């Protein structure tokens, strides 16, 4: 997971915890609703000034958002390291065959 995707996930989680729709959140932050959607989907990255605006609309500190993004990325990184790569059935069958 990339940082921009993690930020989008954190932003969505915080918005929903504040019981705001995308439209209500956009109104609070004085931005367009489709920009909120693009941020949450990881299609856009906020500028530093926008980070402060988003945090103010969520009534939190920008550092709270960034800390949660860091935690989200660390969790995803730990999960990636633990997940072993298993061969698919097709590969497993192909490796079992002996040449004639």
TrEMBL record:
UniProt feature, compositional bias: Basic residues: 87-100
PROSITE patterns: HTH_CROC1
Keywords assigned by UniProt, alphabetized: DNA-binding
Highest taxon of the lineage: Bacteria
SUPFAM superfamilies attached to this UniProt entry: lambda repressor-like DNA-binding domains
Domain HTH cro/C1-type: 11-65
Positions of region (Disordered): 77-100
Keyword Cell wall biogenesis/degradation annotated: no
PANTHER family xrefs: HTH-TYPE TRANSCRIPTIONAL REGULATOR, METHYLPHOSPHONATE SYNTHASE
Protein name: HTH cro/C1-type domain-containing protein
Annotated organism of origin: Paraburkholderia gardini
